[in-house]
Design goal:
The complex is a heterodimer.
Chain A lengths: L1 H10 L4 H40 L3 E6 L12 H12 L3 E7 L1 E7 L4 E9 L7 H11 L1 E4 L12 E5 H7 L6 E7 L5 E12 L9 E5 H8 L8 E6 L2 H15 L7 E7 L2 E10 L4 H10 L2 E4 L1 H4 L5 E4 H7 L6 E6 L8 E6 L2 E3 L9 E5 H10 L4 H4 L21 E2 L6 H13 L6 E6 H4 L1 H39 L1 H10 L3 H36 L13 E2 L2 E2 L5 H27 L3 H6 L3
Parallel strand pairs in A: 4-9, 6-8, 12-18, 14-17, 19-20
Antiparallel strand pairs in A: 1-10, 1-20, 2-10, 3-4, 3-7, 5-8, 6-9, 7-8, 11-12, 11-15, 13-17, 14-18, 15-16, 21-22
Helix pairs in contact in A: 1-17, 2-15, 2-17, 2-18, 3-7, 15-16, 15-18, 17-18
Chain B lengths: L13 E2 L13 E14 L2 E14 L3 E5 L6 H8 L7 E6 L2 E2 L5 H11 E4 L11 H12 L4 H14 L15 H13 L5 E5 L7 H18 L2 E6 L10 E6 L2 E3 L2
Parallel strand pairs in B: 4-9, 4-10, 7-8, 8-9
Antiparallel strand pairs in B: 1-3, 2-3, 2-5, 5-6, 10-11
Helix pairs in contact in B: 3-4, 3-5, 4-5, 5-6
Classes of the chains: A alpha+beta, B alpha/beta.
């Protein structure tokens, strides 16, 4: 084999010009391929690590309340974070709340629409994260530490470009108008404490403020949170699996309020449970499962409907139309919460319905439930939760509605449309990976991969045609030599190997040259600044320069692919050479 | 010596049935050809290159096949050398019937038992003199690297090219190239060396030197040499001569 390698290697020096042309074509192809791959990886890097991670995280848990789910709020931050943390796994390198608002910023005589994003610098003053911040935002004035300053009114960091546009400098005030989580228009003041130079134009319209300050402005209470965003070590590999795992762990339990019901001087303990009265099928299930002893079923199942067990009604002296007060202890507030409701119907209790129970329409139940979230874990022992076999179990509401996992942005939108159509009053929780939350953005990567594939196909044809033609000419020229080595005693297999090895050597050298050329081209292209202004394609640039990210695996993969193509292509002419008759080959004259 | 038992310069041979052996005394036949036919298709016609030929050649012979161009000399050598297939008939080389062997066996046969010297030398241009001579030994894979080198250098020395051992064929004269070819043909210690017009591309002085060398090697290595020529001047070097015309052996 060593001998065959030597002959094949030396044969390369024979048709120097021809091999040089073919090798150059291959090297050019490899260069394009490595360039395209590195560019594609660079774009992926920008998308995954510089855009998606700030827009939605690699994995995000997004709560929603209210019509159209516009309230990004979850009422029990501690519980949600605990579930997410427990199920996220080792690949998570960062977990934080994602809170951001669109607002109108008013600077010195100029205004601009911007995005205000909260970052939690309080817990992350380690050098590594500061370094990452610095790499991402390139603070050219100010200090991140000032974001937490109590002495400054809402410290904010913004981009150099937007600071110029708003005509503000460090320590200037920017007035803002925005809508809080309850949809109310608010105004506020931000103090410029830092100016940064951004990696890409996408981030230039974002201002950063301390998370707690932003949450305060938006109306969150300390135990509430917005969405939770996870940053992963290897997002492309793990995002979907982590999202699936968290989704599986977020299956909600039954929603209920363990309350004391009072009417006048009478009082009794009761479990208040929501039924999904906005869903006709579930409404029918309720109607079929409950036997009213007083009141009308249509009233009882209306959006103000309250069904009380006859046992409770008797104890409290309640009739349909009576108003009762519910009192319960919230999980996070010190004060007891209370609300009143009018009883619409009284039902005969059975083993499924329970005797100390009140069933309340979801539209009536959930606002009270979320406003003063009860401590469900503590109350569960005293509460009556209908058994799994209860015929109306499917009509009862849960703590939240877990939105089915989606694989694309379109699927996610479809799921949310379904929730809206069903007029679900419970809060929703959506768990998404970057592939759904930012699939439109990630389509860009698909386009680039398509370009790479095209480059591969072009290269494939260059190799195919080049190798076949070169080998055909070589075989023609070396026919007598093939006849000679066969006459001397070389087996067909070895003749075939000589030609295949020769092609493999040529391809290997061309690939190495192509990789070197690609690195030179990347170096040169990275030096050229591209001033794209407000063009959205600017998000593909890093500080106005193309961003290439070659990977060892990618390059070795490219070389391996080309080698395989070349060797497979060379196989057939090589076999033809090996199958030549010695006598005819020896008779051959050019 | 077997070759000393051969009497006369024209061996006992005919074309067609009833061929006579040219063996005398106890000499052993290295080649036995019976009823050999070789046809080539040429467009819509068939060329009858060899017509019912019978021939025995003894071990250690130094035999010349003579005849005009197109008489079938090269075809006969090719069939004996296992690089062309007989259309019909039997060919035994060293007692082995070669017409029934598959490609792998016949390639092995060429490697181990037959050496070739070509009119146009046919050296491997990317290998130097030593490597060209080592080439068949490396294909055999039966000797160590040192043995291969020693054997090749011995042959190179015998053909007088020691000082050119590192030269590539392009750096050698025609005569020197043919000497390399002779060394290469003999390096495996074959039963037979076939030389097709070995002097045709050489001037007369060099041609004579090559034939002298072949005779010498025939004596040293005890190898059967069969060479074709259409040059009457080289016949004086042959111990035995076969005359061929129109694919048939004729008495010379």
């Amino acid at each position: 084999m060593k001998f065959l390698l030597m002959i094949s290697f030396r044969n390369l020096s024979r048709q120097k010009r021809r091999n040089l042309f073919l090798g150059s074509a291959m090297a050019f192809g490899v260069m394009i391929m490595v360039l395209a791959n590195s560019f594609s990886h660079g774009i992926s890097d920008i998308l995954f690590n510089k855009i998606v991670v700030y827009v939605a995280g690699h994995v995000s848990v997004i709560p929603g309340e209210g019509r159209g789910r516009h309230l990004a709020i979850f009422r029990d931050k501690e519980r949600l974070e605990k579930i997410v943390k427990k199920n996220a796994g080792d690949s998570v390198i960062d977990m934080d709340e994602g809170v951001g608002i669109f607002l109108r910023a008013i600077g010195n005589g100029r205004t601009e629409n911007m995005v205000l994003v909260g970052i939690n610098t309080g817990r992350t003053y380690d050098e590594k994260l500061l370094k990452e911040f610095d790499e991402s935002f390139h603070l050219i004035e100010g200090d991140y530490r000032q974001l937490r300053s109590r002495a400054i009114e809402n410290p904010v960091i913004l981009s150099k470009e937007k600071a110029e546009l708003l005509n503000v400098k460090r320590n200037d005030i920017i007035r803002i108008r925005f809508r809080n989580i309850f949809g109310q228009t608010q105004s506020g003041r931000l103090t410029v404490t830092g100016i940064m130079s951004n990696d890409n134009t996408f981030m230039q319209g974002v201002m950063f403020v301390e998370l707690e300050n932003l949450k305060g402005m938006m109306g969150y209470r300390p135990w509430e949170c917005g969405s939770i965003q996870l940053t992963l070590r290897d997002p492309q590999r793990d995002a979907v699996a982590v999202a699936d795992r968290i989704h599986a762990a977020l299956v909600p339990g039954p929603a209920f309020i363990r309350a004391t019901v009072t009417r006048g001087a009478s009082r009794a303990g009761a479990t208040v449970l929501p039924f999904m009265g906005n869903d006709e099928k579930k409404k029918k299930l309720m109607a079929d499962s409950f036997r009213l002893v007083k009141g009308s079923m249509s009233d009882a199942l209306s959006k103000d409907g309250v069904l009380m067990s006859a046992t409770l009604a008797r104890a409290l002296g309640v009739r349909p139309g009576s108003t009762v007060e519910f009192r319960f202890r919230p999980k996070y507030e010190k004060e007891e919460a209370s609300f009143s409701a009018e009883v619409s119907g009284i039902f005969a209790p059975d083993k499924w319905t329970g005797s100390e129970t009140v069933y309340m329409h979801e539209a009536l139940f959930y606002p009270r439930f979320y406003e003063s979230l009860p401590d469900l874990a503590a109350d569960a022992r005293r509460a009556f939760i209908p058994a799994a076999g209860a015929p109306f179990k499917g009509a009862l509401g849960t703590e939240w509605e877990l939105v089915a996992r989606a694989r694309t942005t379109d699927d996610a939108k479809k799921n949310m449309r379904d929730i809206t159509r069903r007029r679900v009053k419970a809060a929703t929780i959506q768990v998404g990976s970057m592939y759904e939350t930012a699939s439109d953005v990630l389509k860009l990567e698909g386009v680039l991969n398509l370009i790479t594939l095209t480059a591969v196909l072009v290269l494939f044809f260059i190799i195919l045609i080049g190798v076949i033609n070169t080998l055909r000419m070589t075989i023609r020229e070396r026919t007598r030599e093939i006849g000679t080595i066969r006459a001397i005693g070389m087996q067909r297999r070895d003749v075939r190997r000589i030609f295949i090895l020769e092609t493999a050597f040529l391809t290997l050298f061309a690939s190495i040259a192509g990789v070197i050329l690609a690195f030179i081209a990347m170096g040169v292209l990275s030096l050229i600044p591209f001033n794209v202004g407000d063009n959205p394609m600017g998000i593909l640039l890093v500080r106005q320069h193309l961003h290439f990210l070659p990977t060892v695996g990618g390059i070795l993969g490219n070389i391996a692919l080309i080698m395989v193509i070349a060797v497979v292509t060379a196989f057939f002419p090589a076999r033809r050479a090996a199958n030549l008759s010695s006598a005819e080959a020896l008779r051959h004259f050019e | 010596m077997m070759r000393d038992t051969i009497v006369g310069r024209i061996p006992n041979m005919t074309s067609g049935r009833g061929a006579r052996s040219r063996r005398k005394g106890d000499a052993k036949n290295i080649i036995e050809i019976r009823n050999l036919v070789k046809d080539y298709p040429l467009g819509s016609t068939t060329v009858h290159a060899l017509r019912r030929m019978d021939l025995d050649i003894q071990e250690g012979d130094f035999l010349s096949i003579v005849g005009p161009s197109g008489s079938g000399k090269t075809t006969l050598l090719n069939v004996i050398g296992c690089i062309d297939h007989a259309t019909d008939g039997s060919v035994k080389v060293g007692g082995t019937e070669i017409t029934t062997l598959d490609d792998r066996q016949i390639t092995d046969m060429r490697l181990h038992r037959i050496g070739f010297i070509f009119q146009t030398f046919n050296l491997i241009p990317v290998l130097d003199v030593r490597e060209n001579v080592e080439f068949p030994l490396l294909l055999m894979k039966t000797m160590s690297k040192t043995e291969v080198r020693t054997r090749a250098e011995k042959l190179i020395d015998e053909v007088g090219l020691t000082e050119f051992v590192d030269h590539r064929p392009a750096e050698l004269s025609g005569g020197q190239r043919q000497r390399v070819a002779i060394a290469r043909a003999l390096v495996t210690n074959p039963d037979i060396v076939l030389a097709d017009e070995p002097t045709a591309n050489l001037d007369s002085v060099t041609g004579a030197q090559i034939l002298d060398l072949m005779r010498t090697m025939n004596k040293i290595e005890k190898t059967t040499f069969i060479f074709s020529t259409h040059d009457a001047n080289v016949l004086k070097y042959a111990r035995d001569i076969i005359k061929i015309k129109d694919g048939q052996i004729v008495k010379g």
